[in-house]
Amino acid sequence: MSDKGWIALHRNIRDHWVYQEKRVFSKYEAWLDLLMDANHQDNKFVFDGKLVEVERGQKVTSIRQLSERWGWSRTKVTDFLTLLEKDKMLVRKSDSKKTVLTIVNYDIYQNQEQEKSHSNDTEKPQKSTNNNVKTMSNNENNKTSSSTRKKRVYDPDSIYFILAEKLSKQICQNQEIKEPNLNRWADDIRKMIEIDKRTESQVSNMIDWATSDPFWSAVILSAKKLRDKYDTMAAQANRDYKTQTSVNNSRSSKKQATNYGKTLYTYYEQELRFSPNMAFDEYVRKKRLNERDRQALEQYIHSLEER
Fold it and tell me: Compositional bias (Low complexity) at which positions (predicted)?
């Protein structure tokens, strides 16, 4: 088998069900994922209130995001990136909020001139150690079938177009992007609803969450990216919700305990008016307070003393 030449591997392969299968990535898959997810052109976006420039061949991410995407521990992700750095395959720069990965010699993997001439090259005979095989360009066949396939056109009043327009407007509130092809974005929204089985409200809520999150608002710059990263963002949003709910419940419980202690203190205060020298323990015994009531009253008294 010949090891010369190359094949065109389009990023759209990640939309295929065979790629989207939930699994633990191999090192090869992780490296391929980095190559396909790197920016294929220079870009700018606002992150944490600052303008960040991302060059062709770079990817802005985080160890946590890669860990969730690849099904690895964070330690394994860090060790793998270190290994790639040692082999001079990428350069990593990290701060407390993000990690910027730069693919070394990115043009080797995606050279624009090679990309243009690929169709002609694949029509030429290719030699192998066993025989000569002439392969026709799959790209040319795909182009022919694509050109004859009628593109969908979405009505501005359709839910797909409305959600695409919502995403565009909320992205533009954070940063400047080139005017999007809303019809193409609407098609990605349609795929999320019809193929991925998301509800309209789920997609709408994810747009709100992604465009307000400090990290993801700098990453989600198209409907396609929203679809690609949906599962990862949904997992993070769910964790954030559980954390916030736990905090709110804790605050609510503390507030209820304070109010209950305040009520008990009202009766205790009335008793002290008639018996100002009565000790706290004596009052507890007299009123036959249970342990819960005693603690609530005692904690409220301590809170008053600390003011």
Answer: 134-147
pLDDT of residue 136: 37
Residues 22 and 93 in one domain: yes
Give pLDDT tens digits for 136-190.
344 444 544 444 456 788 998 899 999 999 999 999 988 888 889 999 999 999 9
pTM comes to: 0.40
Domain boundary among 66, 94, 121: 121
- As given in the structure block, the two tokens for residue 252 are 């609510």
Range of the domain at 186: 159-228
* Beta carbons of 93 and 58 less than 8 angstroms apart: no
* Whole-angstrom distance, CA of residue 175 vs CA of residue 62: 20
pLDDT tens column, 280-307: 888 888 878 888 888 888 888 888 776 6
Residue among 226, 228, 199 nearest 213 (CA): 226
CA contacts within 13 A on the Cβ side of 47: 20
- Annotate 86-149 with DSSP letters as a single string: HTTSEEEEE-SS-EEEEETTHHHHS-HHHHHHHHHHTTS-EE-SS-EE----HHHHHHHHHHHS
φ and ψ at 133, to 5 degrees? -125, 130
